[in-house]
Write a structure and sequence with these properties.
The complex is a heterotetramer. Chain B is α+β, with helices and mostly antiparallel strands. Chain B has 3 domains: about 90 residues, Helix Hairpins (Orthogonal Bundle); about 110 residues, Cupredoxins -  blue copper proteins (Immunoglobulin-like); about 130 residues, Cytochrome Bc1 Complex, Chain D, domain 2 (Orthogonal Bundle). Chain B contains 8 helices and 14 strands. In chain B, helix 1 runs antiparallel to helix 2, helix 2 runs antiparallel to helix 3 and helix 6 crosses helix 8. Chain C folds into 2 domains: about 550 residues, Cytochrome c oxidase-like, subunit I domain (Cytochrome C Oxidase, Chain A, Up-down Bundle), CATH 1.20.210.10; about 50 residues, no CATH class. The complex binds heme-A (2 copies), dinuclear copper ion and copper (II) ion (CU). The site of copper (II) ion has 4 residues of chain C, from helix 7.
Chain lengths: ~110, ~425, ~650, ~240
Amino acid sequence: MSHDAKHSAAHGAAHAHETHHPTGNQYLKIAIILTIITAIEVWAYYIPALVASPLFNPALIIMSALKFGIVVLFYMHIKFDHPLFRLLFTASLILALCTGTALMFLFKVF
Amino acid sequence: MPKLRLREAGPALLFMVVLLTLTACGDTVYPNTTFTRFTDLNSSILSLWDRLLFWGTIVFVVVEAALIFTIIRYRKRPGGPEAKQIHGNAILEITWTAIPAIILVLIAVPTVKTIFQTQAPAPAGALKVQVIGHQWWWEFRYPELGIVTANELYVPVGRTVSFELTTKDVLHSFWFPAMGGKRDLITNRTNYMWFTPNADLGTQAWNGFCTEYCGSSHANMRIRLYTVQPDEFESWAKHQASPAVFNPLAPAAPPATPVANASNRRPAVPAVDTAPAQPSTGYVFPIEKLPAHVVPQTPIPAGLDFDDALLAGGDATRGATQGFMLGGCIGCHAINGVPGAVSNIGPNLTHVASRHTIASGLYKFDGPTLARWIKNARHMKPGVIMNTIGRGEYDPGMKMTVTAGLDDRQIADVVAYLMSLK
Amino acid sequence: MATIAAPTHAGHAEASSQNTGIWSWIATTDHKRIGTLYLWTALFFFLVGGLEAVLIRTQLMKPNMGFVSAETYNQLFTMHGTTMVFLAIMPLSAAFFNFLIPLQIGARDVAFPRLNAFSYWVYLLGGIFLTVPILFDVAPNGGWFGYAPLTTVQFSPGHNIDFWVIGLQVLGVSSLAAAFNFITTIINMRAPGMTLMRMPMFTWMSFVVQFLLVLAFPPITVALVFLLMDRFFGTTFYAIAAGADPLLWQHLFWVFGHPEVYILILPAFGLVSEVLPTFSKKPLFGYNVMVYSGIMIGFLGFGVWAHHMFAVGMGAVADSIFSMMTMLIAIPTGVKIFNWIATMWAGEVRFEVPMKFAIALIGMFTIGGISGVMHSSPPADLQQTDTYFIVAHFHYVLFGGSIMGIFAGIYHYYPKMTGRFMDTGLGNLHFWGNLIGMNLTFFPMHFSGLYGMPRRIYQYDSGQGWDLFNLMSTYGTYLIALSTLVFVWNFVRSRTRGAVAGNDPWGAGTLEWSIPSPPPEYNFAQLPEVTSRYPLWDLKDPSKTAGIAHSHADAMTITDAHAVPVHEETERFTAKELGIPMPLPTAKPLFTAVGLMTMFSGLLFLRNDLFAVAMTITIGGACMFIGGLYAWLTSPLE
Amino acid sequence: MASHAAAAPHTAGADAGHDDGHEHHHYTTTGLDNRKIAIWAFLGSECMLFASLISTYLIYKGKSLVGPFPHTEWVNEAGKRFEPILDIPVTSASTAVLLASSFAMVLALQAVQLKGKPIAATAGWWERIQRSSQFWLAATAFLGATFLGFQAYEFTSFVHEGLTIKTNLFGSTFFTLTGFHGAHVTVGVLWLMTLLWIDRTRGLGPKDELIVDICALYWHFVDVVWIVIFTLVYLIS
Ligand code: HEA
Ligand code: HEA
Ligand code: CUA
Ligand SMILES: [Cu+2]
């Protein structure tokens, strides 16, 4: 939380850090990318050879994580916003991921 | 400030008492002590415990001594020195981070070793025992020996017993303090645990407990363990595996309807084995050798009357042919050799008279207690599934008075029958 | 708080109409009043939980005692645990969060004053909902961690568990709402100069606790939702016939349950970290390390939950990992213990009542911590788990830790809250009764446990070697109970009869002591500007804080009194006189809370096949809840 | 800090928070709005909530004693055959709808931020429509409602195919997980409609950026959760 401390000393106008938002067209591009990834996911689901591959699950998870990241970074503008928000969210997210993974190990899901 | 010294010295003194009692470790005063080395399992645990206690005591003494010293030495005194404004000291702080860390390593290493050692698969040749938890009694099966029994467990000394733990209903936990750690019985899962009673342990009786809260009568879900010599075990096992030996004490019981074969599906009538029984009933832990703490002392609740005089006139055969049917016992209790008596809702009664306790160690096995148990089990043990059977008794579970059940004379017959199931 | 204001503050009467009468409490949005409400309510529940403990101990006094029935006993220990954890200690901590955090960081109020009121009302209603059934012998009876499948309808057909699952769910809403509020308050409402590393230790530990709350409550919420759905809508999460795995509940519960125990202890740690420096006339030793160790404890607390499950057969690898993670927590905790001792070292230790409790925490918590480490070794724990040895452990940390710390806080802050001291003689009586009583009660439990006595048993046979220990425990309990009555008397009486206390009765160093006692509704007439960790010491005795960082160039010359921006405020005005906008009083949060509670209680009727009744109540409650929320959000705050 | 002291002199009153759309400029430590900090803390907490729900689903996956099953066929005692129950095409469509709603949401926020800014006379329809906050709020709410429609369809068809919340572990975990998500979407739709209503009555402008932003954060989070659910529940078998 050290940024926060820095900030309290450095802050001035309230919304100084919300400047470089993407524009509408960039949002559109992001939306298209998201749709394409989703399309690839669904397409892969219908190719038995791919589903059988040991890389199928990891690939899907990576694609979904990619989408997750894009939405959080750009749509939720965490990339451009105050670092405090990034900290609050990513710390919780990491803890949630670790807990979930640990639970699944304990129940031998994998 | 002597008051302060006293305050902090109290627990310290008590802690010393721990150490003393631990070394003294008299098992007559503390019959359920965990500080034993009667099995391999508990030897490992106790070695670990000694280490924990050692370091725990050191930490305790250091912290409390430092605390007491500080508050006495630096108490505010008129004309005393002013407080020194110290804000921290990196070296000190690193020291008291590092020392506990080292202590923890000294604890963690043997801990992990012991974990792997005690959770390894049981050695080959172990005696298999299936433990099945029920609200609120224990079912024991020796699959290799064909034995089904309840609440009292026999194991031979010097041989590893390997338990396979499951439960019919909620969670329970299986524990003999003197033998070593407990394991939970978990619904839809199977757990394992094993230990080897020392070969020189001698024929002894032990208490065990259910240690996972399992509802109303969790407190009343006790176990008895008999560690016996191998030959004694052999004899016990052989007899337990045999079907019920019913030897009516009353000489001339009217011959019951002969039962042609066991597959006969008519309303079940117990096969009354009127043929001369085997001379021996097999080994049973001698009742006179039972130490006091193994003998149940639960008082029979007030308001449960039975005319004990009737017991003398109880007719075992009538109990077997009538009472056991009319009372509905057959719906819940299995008796090997009695067709139709196959349910395991209640404990297996094939050799119930070879047990010293009933109701999971809550009461002694004797006529008057059995009679009252049959009359109103729910009054004697809160929440039990076995319904109230005595006619005119109030059933606290159903919240109504029993109108159909057995009268005292019929109960006496059933008691006589059960008493004969050696 | 005008009714209890000390006469010296007569200067400016707090004349506004909101200040007296029952309505002023129902509609309050003032964090200090809400803190006071929390305090009184939680103390009441503490007495209820204590009374349950007294009944438990009476039943266990002798073998086969027959004082209460098995069924009643099971309700008693379930409610004792649940009450103490959720209705006494957590809200007692919340009382301090509310009262102190804004004062310590120099804020006008919390970030969301009405949400704060809502949290309190939800807590009150949930507490009542959970407690009343015991009067009718239908209280929850599944133990405080309610292991499935015992809590499913198949094995607990009555309404008992319904009260538990609904009550805890509702209390969770309260805790979560409060936690978001305090996270925001602490991040965003600090006075100028109050950097994170200057926050008082109580605020710091509370800050950590808010994160624990926010991250630990969701798993239990989920576990409770499953149970609720199982019980009311026939789902199969814990239904054994459907192949459910009972360990699911256990894991979800303890993922919450272990952070929960640090939720219970860290505020107490924070409180004694305020008390010890004050009564040693020294700043806290190793402030930074104290902060980091608190964070570390909170963080590690999420990785150890399965140490409550060593007996379930997780396998050697999982056992080992959780064992080692658990042991690690001893390190940051030990740092705290040693730093506290070092705080007193070379100080001028004054044995005022709060200080006695704080010192007792160090001594007693250590005992509980050591037995905790003994449980953390799985093979050893298999001999300890579910015995009285565990009961001994957690009462040493809970009573010897949380309760001692909270009492230290109560005696310490009573003058700030009410303007009057609590009586020292009675306080000493309470202290010694508590200290001796708790050792007499809980120390013997180590023995009864290791000598084989399982917990949660309503009766035991004689001759098991436990009789003496149980008798001691019971007498100890009576001693605690008596001394607690002394406390109650002292607490109630001192409000009007105690000696009058000024702004800073103990010579403390943090901001809350710079304003009048009790504080005016607006807290600070002037926004303080903070120069160091102990701004008030900067002001009054700069030599004390000369050794710690003062980041402002202008404040480096501490000796120049004019450079010290904290003002000690002595006069009180009304907020209006000062032109300070205050949050308006409103009962909408209460209304909304009633809606929430009603909505949930409607479910009860589902299991009596009163579908229409259930739906009416639930939908009615939901409308009330949504309407209240809407009315609240659309009306102005100030 | 000196600059601060000048900007907000030591007057009172400058630091009480607000949990409504009130227009004071209160002093805050970080210069951020309280509500935005609270929503991010809330979303952090929601991560734990959905992690618990999703883990439970995965833990119970394949443990159902009776069908229907998500990805495999099942024949019950009566000989009735059940197809794998999850309907990927339909769910893919609903996923796309929810993704599109997130896109509409960012444009709604952008429209609110840009309100009142001059727009070039040469701007085409795409530039112009980007300025309509009402359009995008309505679009978001509509797409959200469509998603809920898909979900309602999915749930009813499952019930017709013999899968209810009581049937087996899969039914319980599936309906609870997706139901929880659906409830979140429902709250979001109501929230969006409230914003739309405010926009229509008094108009949302740059000064309201915050209240739209908070709603948007919530909405995107709900979307992000669905991204995970779609992959873990529907696609991975
Ligand atoms: C305030 C609450 C609180 C706190 C702070 C703790 C702190 C700890 N607890 Fe405790 N615990 C409970 C409340 C708490 N516990 C409760 C309520 C239960 C029972 C729940 C139930 O079943 O109903 C429980 C149960 C419990 C168990 C499960 C036992 C079982 O059921 O089988 C375990 C196992 O590992 C455990 C361990 C620990 C440890 C290692 C700590 C550590 O954090 C302690 C660390 C502190 C110290 C160690 C002392 C100070 C340190 C030093 C002076 C440094 C040097 C020390 C060493 C090197 C040892 N606790
Ligand atoms: C948060 C903490 C907390 C606190 C402070 C206490 C305090 C006490 N606890 Fe607590 N206890 C727990 C938390 C706590 N407990 C938990 C979590 C469990 C596990 C539950 C479970 O297994 O599910 C437990 C279980 C537990 C048991 C085990 C029960 C069993 O396993 O069968 C016992 C037994 O002795 C016990 C005793 C006591 C005693 C004697 C006190 C004493 O300190 C109490 C002191 C007494 C008082 C403070 C009351 C004084 C006041 C009056 C008498 C006046 C009343 C008047 C009015 C109401 C007007 N507790
Ligand atoms: Cu079985 Cu407790
Ligand atoms: Cu724990």
